[in-house]
Design brief:
202 residues, 9-stranded antiparallel β-sheet, 5 helices, 9 strands, 30% strand
């Protein structure tokens, strides 16, 4: 699927059904999910129907508005004590702007945790991601190149070998250095969703 954001397994129709299921489980209307995510109602509707391929940023905003992770939208929860994810089995999301996210962690029951490897091309801006629920945490380490990390408007430049921590409930943006781009590992621990069911939004 060269034009699709997903490169392994899940069809747009299946992804749409999962997003719709998560939305309904939380008692949210399409209008409310659009409001919480900052994504237009028409886009939410098209993604749920499998008619539109979302960018990684759109998918992340929908997941954040649902109080969950992209991983949970892509995979069923794993069972058993040990789970090996072979390289070919890992979910990979490729954004048309020139960056890739490879999900390295399985979905585990009620645990909202995501471990990923992100490759950002030279000069590519991956965009700004919305704040997660209060109490969420993100840890990252740069493997190659230089990452331009921005937290709530404050820029930080991280070179290979550098690492950083920041509260996940801040606005966070990632861009690759103009000459080198970057490869980074990111671990994201989400606190319980702050949206929950309709009528209990905080």
């Amino acid at each position: 699927m060269s034009e699709g954001v997903l490169s392994s397994g899940l069809s747009m129709a299946e992804l749409g059904l999962r997003i719709r299921g998560e939305r309904r489980a939380r008692g949210l209307s399409i209008e409310r999910l659009a409001e919480l995510s900052g994504i237009s109602r028409s886009m939410v509707s098209e993604v749920e129907r499998g008619a539109k391929t979302p960018t990684v940023l759109v998918l992340d905003r929908l997941a954040t508005a649902l109080g969950t992770s992209i991983s949970r939208l892509l995979d069923e929860p794993a069972h058993g004590g040990v789970r090996v994810l072979r390289h070919a089995e890992q979910r990979v999301l490729r954004d048309p702007s020139g960056w890739e996210r490879r999900v390295l962690s399985p979905v585990l029951g009620e645990v909202e945790f995501e471990f990923m490897r992100t490759t950002i091309g030279p000069g590519v801006d991956a965009g700004e991601f919305a704040p997660h629920a209060p109490g969420s945490r993100e840890y990252l380490a740069v493997e190659q190149g230089v990452l331009l990390l921005t937290i709530d408007g404050q820029p930080y430049e991280l070179a290979a070998g550098d690492s950083a921590y920041y509260p996940g409930d801040r606005r966070h943006a990632f861009a690759g250095d103009a000459e080198t781009g970057c490869v980074l590992y990111l671990a994201m621990e989400l606190a319980p969703g702050h949206h929950g069911r309709e009528g209990h939004d905080g």
